[in-house]
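re: ur question from earlier - yeah i can do the single chain one, its not a big deal. heres the input i used so u can compare w yours
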Amino acid sequence: TQSSLSFSTSIVLNPPCIPTHYILYATIYDFANKGSGNYLAHPDFNCDSLKCSNGGKGIVQNALDPVTLLPAYNTSDCVTSPASFNQWFKPDSVNQKAFVKLVAPYDPVQKTYTYKNEQFYPIDGQYFGNEGKAHNFGFTLQTHSMFEYNKGLSVTVGGDDDVWVFIDNKLAIDNGGLHAY
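and the output i got, formated as tokens:
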């Protein structure tokens, strides 16, 4: 299995005010696959019994929760239960919270900021560790960003499992479920 993350955005800027990098700060929740110390194993991570029919579409509702600004569970056989999904983006007895900085350099030819990492394992060997695997696959990541839409602006996002993009708190990209990048 491979973990990857990419995003690219084209931004209309006027020289000489073009920043050399676009920085996103993200929150990561590392999940115990086997259970560790006071932490319980999470049933949604590395679970072969989950079917994930319908390609995983529809796991989340079409809008962020208006109070928490987090994805709200809809329905899916890709997830054990609504309660287990609600642990994906909140500190809980099944995860440890960490932070990561994603830096996307500006490409003056394409006029885009692009972050692409085909080997995205930002917490290898940390928190719960790799739990006997080559990499730490058991994590979720969330980030928020603000930008002003200009005509012609585009946002491209990629990843391997359960990627959702919300724009103005509405679901714009539903790449939920288990699949290869």
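The beta strands are 5-10, 21-31, 60-64, 71-73, 95-107, 112-117, 139-143, 154-159, 163-167, 170-175. not sure if urs matches, ping me
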